[in-house]
Design brief:
alpha+beta; disordered N terminus; 41% helix; chaperone; Protein-export protein SecB; Bacterial Protein-export protein SecB; SecB-like_sf; SecB
Length: 171
């Protein structure tokens, strides 16, 4: 057996602490709701729904380098002016994220984590719709990178407008 140098182990431990870290600690359903406000009458009309999906994310720092990220998805199916079903799912995850520059940290929390949570939320929604005896609902994939980039662009524009307004007030 080869001997290990204690100095090398200490150096390796130090390097590991500086390397970016990302780990899923837990994925769970935080809140689920399924409503069919116009049943059973809605089952007698021809099935040509207008389906809308709204997505939102929020996050909070827990202890140390641990974060909770919650992906909220609301799907509403309407036929004419009547709601066939309304599904709300909050899929959450606890992630350990460390040693990332602020830009990468924001991207991880705002894009990567929701991307990991989305398949779980999509499956929950599909199962709920199926149990409500409606035709299958298959949600299309979501490009969270594009949504995050759009959000960051909006934040930058708002900051520029705020800065411009402050300069006008100072003049």
């Amino acid at each position: 057996m080869a001997e290990q140098n204690p100095t090398q182990n200490a150096e390796n431990t130090g390097n590991e602490q500086q390397n970016p870290q990302f780990a899923i600690q837990r994925i769970f359903a935080k809140n689920i709701s399924f409503e069919t406000p116009n049943s059973p009458e809605i089952f007698t009309v021809q099935w040509k729904p207008d389906v809308q999906m709204d997505i939102d994310t929020k996050s909070k720092k827990l202890e140390g380098d641990t974060y909770e990220v919650v992906l909220s998805i609301t799907v509403t199916a309407k036929i004419e002016d009547k709601t066939a079903f309304l599904v709300e799912v909050e899929q959450a995850g606890i992630f350990a994220i460390a040693n990332l520059p602020p830009q990468q940290m924001a991207h991880s929390i705002g894009s990567m984590c929701p991307g990991i949570l989305f398949p779980y939320a999509r499956e929950a929604i599909s199962n709920l719709v199926n149990r409500g005896t409606f035709p299958p609902l298959n949600l299309a994939p979501v490009n969270f990178d594009a949504l995050f980039a759009s959000y960051m662009q909006q934040v930058a524009q708002q900051q520029a407008q705020d800065q411009e307004s402050n300069q006008k007030l100072d003049s």
